[in-house]
Amino acid sequence: MELPPRPTPFDFHGVSMTKYFTDNWDNIQDFKARPDDILIATYPKAGTTWVSYILDLLYFGHTCPDRLSSIPLHERVPFLEISVPSLPTGKDLADQLSTTPRLIKTHLPIQFVPRSFWEQSSRIVCVARNAKDTAVSYFHFGRMNHVQPEPGDWSSFLQKFMDGKMVFGSWYDHVNGWWKRKQTYPKLHYIFYEDLIEDTGGEIDRLCSFLGLSPSAEEKEKVSAGVTFDSMKRNQMTNFSTVKMMDLTVSPFMRKGKVGDWKNHFTVSQNEHFDEDYKQKMKNPALHFRTEV
Ligand code: A3P
After folding, report:
1. Which one of the listed residues 74, 107, 189, 265 is annotated catalytic?
2. CB of 105 within 8 A of CB of 40?
3. Could you read off the pLDDT of 23-70 as tens digits, one per residue?
4. Is the distance from the beta carbon of residue 255 to the nearest atom of ligand 1 less than 6 Å?
5. Among 49, 76, 258, which is best to mutate for testing ligand 1, by the most ligand atoms less than 8 A from CB?
6. 33, 54 contact by CB (below 8 A)
7. How far is CA 69 from CA 76, 236, 238, 247, 248, in A?
8. Which of 142, 161, 184, 213 satisfies CB 3.0 to 4.6 Å to 135 for a cystine?
9. Looking at ligand 1, which atom is closest to the CA of residue 228?
């Protein structure tokens, strides 16, 4: 397969997007969600893959072992809005899922989510990660992933992040939009990446209680062991080694998996500038992110 050309972001209804996520727009908006669908909604680099795999193992780990070794995770949990030439669209993959529930991933900001998810009262698992580590992870992702615009150098990338000019728009608007919806939509469960790092087992328990699942101790142990950073990095079905658009020799998808790697990237003055700007944009004290654990 030929690599798709790097896209140029443009303003799409007030959100910076690229054609790979807007080309199939009408079909995405017409997506027919079901009441038992589970939507995994995140800003890019928040730990989407991690939580997708946790959900996949919780639902299908013990009943469909073949699936684990033969179908890459991104096919088991389709990326709803993606549409890259010569590959099946995320929408088609989602339509073709034969599992119950269907696990579906999206990076769309709240206002772009297809209406049917709300109409059907589907469950939603939201994952969010602190802005500094998200920015660093997104920068390295841009270097290795041809579906992303060229990231440029770190300092201009960071400025674009602060300006909300990332693909899928402003991190600040995205996390606030989903957080606000959680207050009125009871079927939304919000997970912080930092909490998942600190207490994976406890977060899996909370996720299970949201989903109404009660796995045996043995099943839970299997899920916890399968979703460690090292085992997902080794696992060809979860490390994106099957995806041609990503050049893992430039930067692996499973890169560091840490809280606080931003300290290796931000200069003192970048950090001060970022913190100042952050205070202006993040006024809700209830939505608190940890930049270290
Ligand atoms: P880093 O680039 O900081 O390493 P997403 O799936 O939303 O694109 O997020 C990718 C980020 O989540 C990457 O962060 C990746 O390493 C991290 N990640 C994925 N699986 C993880 C795991 N099992 N434990 C910790 N971090 C994980």
Report:
1. 107
2. yes
3. 999 999 999 999 999 999 999 999 999 999 999 999 999 888 788 889
4. yes
5. 49
6. no
7. 12, 8, 10, 22, 20
8. 161
9. 23
In Å, how far from its chain's centre is CA 10? 21
* Whether 13 is catalytic: no
Q: Is 257 in the pocket of ligand 1 (CB under 6 A)?
A: yes
Helix (H) / strand (E) containing 218? helix 217-226
Three-state DSSP string of 147-202: CCCCCCCHHHHHHHHHCCCCCCCCHHHHHHHHHHHHCCCCCEEEEEHHHHHHCHHH
pLDDT tens, position by position, 121-154: 999 999 999 999 999 999 999 999 999 999 999 9
Q: How confident is the model at residue 1 (pLDDT cuts 50, 70, 90)?
A: low
pTM of the predicted protein model: 0.98
Pairing between strand 123-128 and 188-192? parallel
- Judge contact between 141 and 243, C-beta under 8 A: no
pLDDT tens readout for residues 171-223? 999 999 999 999 999 999 999 999 999 999 999 999 999 999 999 999 999 99
Residue closest via CA to ligand 1's atom 26 equals: 257
CA 202 to chain centre: 20
Find out whether the beta carbon of 229 lies less than 6 Å from any atom of ligand 1.
yes
Residues paired with residue 11 on neighbouring β-strands, in sequence order: 16
CB of 107 shorter than 6 A to ligand 1: no
